[in-house]
């Protein structure tokens, strides 16, 4: 059997959540069935890791079509991306032809050029949907002000949409046919048990250690931590929050200062670490005050580590945490409710143990091997389904549309304005 040549296109070059998920899928591929090639827009850690796995890497332009909301101007640059797309799609299409690629994969929603290159070259396309575009608090600027158009376009150009959780399938399923969407849950391996990161900040032996994992930004609820700390410390003075994840240094310093009480800092940033399982096991329980999450891997790892969880109705939070069983679930932005839950768990070690054990039992089926099998099956099924819109829209029409500014398509604006 000749293996399928698969081109996996990443939106990032580091080792964020989407990149880790992609590498884990590649690591599980039977190379006699799927031969992976990774495409990045510049060299970085992702390319290094892929090559270390024996995977070919190509470098080609890959601008995001969904920019960060706080960096996009008020006019939103979707029209500019659309006008410049031919110069981005063409090199990727050349790579597809030159390397005899059989199927194309997009690692996340900010990627659109890979789907277009797949269509132009008549290849099947798998889109891995790892964002809840239809919910608030996501820091992406939506085309025409709505997620409806984004979901519809990404879904239309995909032979198969892979969602990391049921919440994600429900969200995109409002626009994309459910038969086209498949949930492949993330997984973790027992072998991922690692020692704690070196040199964790020293606190009192009696302190209650609360772990937070993720990028330090507003979507993860970083701005809520000082308020949660101040409220919880009134009941339990020895609370300390440890945050594992990168972010803006100035923001970290400001939040640390705001969470300092009577000269004692109660918030400690340790930066990025690849020892998350070990970090979680060094904590007493986990806090996740996020505003928008599809299926947060950090919570899956926390549950597997036997840690109780305080989270929000951010999407994936309520999919992983059953209120009162393996943690507590608060409303988004409700710092008071989260602080009350933190203080309660800090006082009640028996509740922490009970919830942690329940979480470990729940997380047991979410193995890395199951995720990897699911991803290989998704690639094979998408390939069998064929190109997403084969025989319906000629490639030359796509080329013409790429040159058409989005402002010249008012019907799309009116349709998108209906919302998701």
What does this structure look like?
- It is built from 16 helices and 15 strands.
- Strands 3-2-1-4-5-6-7 form a seven-stranded parallel β-sheet. Strands 12-9-8-13-14-15 form a six-stranded parallel β-sheet, with helices on both faces.
- Strand 4, helix 4 and strand 5 form a beta-alpha-beta unit.
- About 1% of the residues have low confidence.
- The chain is α/β, with parallel strands linked by helices and 420 residues long.
- It has two domains: 233 residues, Glycogen Phosphorylase B (Rossmann fold), CATH 3.40.50.2000; 174 residues, Glycogen Phosphorylase B (Rossmann fold), CATH 3.40.50.
Q: How many β-strand runs?
A: 15
Shape: elongated
Walk across the major sheet and give the strand order: 3-2-1-4-5-6-7
* CATH topology-level name of the largest domain: Rossmann fold
CATH superfamily of the largest domain: Glycogen Phosphorylase B
The biggest sheet, with number of strands, parallel, antiparallel or mixed sense and barrel status, is: 7 strands, parallel
* Total domain modules: 2
Distance between the termini: 43 Å
CATH architecture of the largest domain: 3-Layer(aba) Sandwich
Which structural class do you get from the secondary structure elements? alpha/beta
Helical content class: 25-40%
Average pLDDT rating? 89
Counting DSSP H or I runs of 4 or more residues, the number of helices is 16
Give the C-level CATH assignment of the largest domain: Alpha Beta
Radius of gyration: 22 Å
Q: How much of the polypeptide forms β-strand, as a percent range?
A: 15-25%
Q: Report the uncertain regions.
A: 405-410
């Amino acid at each position: 059997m000749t293996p399928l040549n698969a081109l996996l296109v990443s939106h990032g070059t580091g080792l964020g959540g989407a990149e880790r998920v992609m590498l884990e899928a590649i690591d599980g591929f039977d190379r006699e069935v799927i031969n992976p090639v990774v495409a990045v827009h510049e060299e970085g850690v992702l390319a290094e890791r892929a090559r270390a796995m024996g995977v070919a890497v190509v470098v080609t332009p890959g601008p995001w079509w969904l920019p960060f909301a706080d960096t996009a101007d008020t006019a939103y640059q979707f029209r500019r991306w659309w006008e410049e797309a031919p110069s981005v799609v063409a090199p990727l299409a050349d790579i597809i032809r030159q390397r005899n690629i059989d199927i194309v994969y997009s690692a996340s929603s900010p990627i659109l050029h890979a789907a277009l290159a797949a269509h132009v070259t008549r290849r099947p396309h798998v889109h891995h949907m790892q964002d809840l575009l239809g919910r608030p608090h996501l820091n992406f600027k939506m085309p025409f002000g709505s997620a409806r158009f984004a979901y519809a376009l990404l879904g239309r150009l995909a032979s198969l949409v892979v969602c990391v959780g049921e919440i994600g399938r429900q969200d995109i399923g409002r626009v994309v046919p459910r038969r086209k969407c498949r949930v492949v849950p993330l997984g973790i391996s027992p072998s991922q048990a690692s020692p704690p990161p070196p040199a964790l900040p020293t606190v009192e032996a009696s302190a209650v250690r609360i772990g937070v994992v993720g990028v330090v930004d507003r979507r993860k609820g970083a701005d809520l931590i000082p308020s949660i700390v101040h409220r919880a410390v009134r009941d339990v003075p020895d609370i300390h929050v440890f945050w594992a994840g990168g972010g803006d240094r100035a923001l970290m310093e400001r939040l640390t200062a705001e969470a300092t009480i009577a000269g004692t800092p109660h918030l400690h940033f340790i930066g990025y670490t690849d020892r998350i399982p070990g970090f979680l096991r060094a904590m007493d329980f986990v806090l996740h005050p996020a505003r928008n999450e599809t299926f947060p891997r950090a919570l899956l790892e926390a549950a597997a580590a036997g840690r109780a969880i305080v989270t929000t109705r951010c999407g994936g939070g309520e999919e992983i945490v059953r209120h009162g069983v393996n943690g507590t679930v608060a409303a988004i932005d409700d710092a008071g409710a989260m602080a009350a839950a933190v203080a309660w768990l800090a006082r009640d070690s028996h509740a922490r143990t009970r919830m942690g054990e329940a979480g470990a039992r729940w997380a047991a089926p979410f193995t890395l091997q199951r995720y990897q099998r699911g991803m290989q099956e998704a690639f094979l099924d998408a390939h069998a389904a064929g190109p997403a819109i084969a025989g319906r829209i000629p490639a030359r029409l796509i080329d013409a549309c790429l040159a058409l500014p989005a402002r010249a398509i008012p019907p799309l604006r009116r349709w998108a304005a209906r919302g998701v």
